[in-house]
């Protein structure tokens, strides 16, 4: 399956209950990448490979780089993606998605990809929970923003879903 | 408001008898005069706001799928509420699984009517009476409209 970013929407969601605040972003140009790292420690026995152990856990690295086509929010003026990441402006009332109130503010990111296949069964929802940005790059000429950061999980959660349930 | 110095009469209660041999059960179907109770429990859905990259201001997104689904659900629940409330004019009627305070139970009304022993035709007649009691009987409205227009032609 070829994934075209133009068929993707990105959602930033906060931890408000029962109805989270959401910002839906239709991506025009750009890319989303994420890296799951699993550290392994290979133990040697007299210079020869012997056994393998898991190393320390590592958070998922996330990189978003996009131009948006539209922004959508359930109520009022949609906040900008940057406002959501900084919890300011229209997103000043957002609640951290982390269950630990002592941790820095974070949001969940959902990437919904509908490849528009005829059978309608190939849509996928990728959940990147508890994302905290670490770097924001603004490209004024391209009109793009690039965000990098980490999710406080070791793996992301992809789910195949029916197209209509987006 | 008054028309020709008079207020409108209260909508009449429509009587629907259900016969079982020698026994007859009378359903009384009345109009729902306001939906305040319902609106408190189920506020009308609000469309999300969408801002396109070249637009100065966001606009309501009336094509949003979640909003359309919410409108469908709202309309179904409102219609069920009207039916349940209208039929509830019947004396000694007790709903078992329908609770007007819990909108998620509204859709049980049809099953309850079936379980109570009403057949499809009788349920249809009750729903028809609900429409009539609430002034939604299109055939009667059409007849009244024709009578009014005919009287204007006669006067002319």
Main sheet attributes: strand count, strand direction, barrel closure of chain A: 6 strands, antiparallel, barrel
Main sheet strand line-up of chain B: 1-2
Helix tally of chain A equals: 1
- Largest interface (CB < 8 Å): A-B, 16 and 11 residues
**Whole-number tally of structural domains of chain A:** 1
Mean pLDDT of chain B: 89
- Structural class from helices and strands of chain A? mainly beta
Q: In terms of structural class, how would the helical and strand content of chain B be classed? A: alpha+beta
Count of structural domains of chain B: 1
Q: What is the assembly state of the chains in this entry? A: heterodimer
Can you count the helices of chain B?
5
| Binned strand content of chain A | over 45%
Number of strands of chain B: 4
Total E-strand runs of chain A: 9
What is the strand and helix layout of this fold?
The complex is a heterodimer of chains A (166) and B (156).
Chain A: E1 8-13, E2 22-35, E3 38-45, E4 48-57, E5 60-73, H1 81-86, E6 107-113, E7 123-139, E8 144-151, E9 157-161
Antiparallel strand pairs in A: 1-2, 1-6, 2-5, 3-4, 5-8, 6-7, 7-8, 7-9
Chain B: E1 14-20, E2 23-29, H1 36-41, E3 49-52, E4 59-60, H2 65-87, H3 109-115, H4 120-133, H5 138-155
Antiparallel strand pairs in B: 1-2, 3-4
Helix pairs in contact in B: 2-4
Overview of the molecule:
The complex is a heterodimer of chains A (166) and B (156). With 166 residues, chain A is mainly beta. Chain A has one domain. Chain A is built from 1 helix and 9 strands, in the order E-E-E-E-E-H-E-E-E-E. In chain A, the strands form 2 sheets. Chain A has a 6-stranded antiparallel barrel. A two-stranded antiparallel ribbon of chain A has the order 3-4. Chain A is globular and about 65 Å long. The mean pLDDT of chain A is 89. By secondary structure, chain B is α+β, with helices and mostly antiparallel strands. Chain B has one domain (14-143). Chain B has 5 helices and 4 strands. In chain B, the strands form 2 sheets. A two-stranded antiparallel ribbon of chain B has the order 1-2. In chain B, strands 3-4 form a two-stranded antiparallel sheet. In chain B, helix 2 packs across helix 4 (120-133). The two termini of chain B are 29 Å apart. The model of chain B has no long low-confidence stretch (mean pLDDT 89). The interface between A and B is medium-sized, with 16 and 11 residues. Strand 5 of chain A pairs antiparallel with strand 3 (49-52) of chain B.
């Amino acid at each position: 399956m070829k994934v075209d970013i133009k068929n993707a929407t990105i959602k930033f969601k906060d931890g408000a209950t029962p109805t989270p605040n959401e910002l839906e972003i239709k991506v025009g140009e750009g890319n989303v990448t994420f890296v799951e790292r699993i550290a392994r420690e290979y133990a040697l026995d007299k210079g020869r490979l012997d056994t393998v152990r898991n190393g320390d856990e590592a958070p998922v690295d996330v990189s978003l780089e996009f131009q948006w086509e539209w922004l959508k929010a359930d109520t009022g003026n949609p906040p900008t993606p940057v406002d959501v990441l900084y919890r300011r402006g229209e997103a000043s009332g957002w609640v951290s998605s982390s269950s630990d109130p002592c941790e820095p503010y974070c949001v969940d990111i959902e990437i919904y990809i509908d490849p528009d296949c005829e059978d309608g069964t190939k849509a996928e929802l990728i959940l990147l929970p508890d994302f905290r940005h670490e770097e924001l790059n603004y490209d004024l000429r391209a009109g793009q923003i690039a965000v990098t950061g980490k999710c406080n999980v070791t793996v992301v959660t992809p789910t195949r879903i029916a197209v209509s349930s987006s | 408001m008054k028309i020709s110095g008079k207020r409108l009469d209260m909508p009449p209660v429509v009587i629907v008898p259900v016969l079982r041999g020698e026994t007859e059960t009378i359903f009384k179907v009345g109009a729902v005069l306001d939906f305040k109770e319902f609106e408190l429990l189920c506020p009308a859905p609000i469309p999300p706001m969408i801002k396109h990259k070249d637009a100065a201001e966001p606009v309501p997104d009336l094509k949003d799928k979640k909003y359309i689904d919410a409108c469908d659900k709202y309309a179904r629940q409102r219609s069920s509420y009207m039916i349940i409330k209208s039929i509830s004019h019947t004396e000694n009627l007790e709903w078992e699984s329908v609770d007007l305070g819990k909108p998620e139970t509204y859709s049980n009304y049809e099953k309850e009517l079936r379980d109570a022993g009403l057949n499809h035709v009788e349920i249809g007649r009750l729903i028809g009476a609900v429409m009539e009691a609430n002034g939604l009987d299109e055939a009667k409205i059409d007849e009244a409209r024709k009578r009014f227009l005919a009287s204007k032609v006669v006067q002319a």
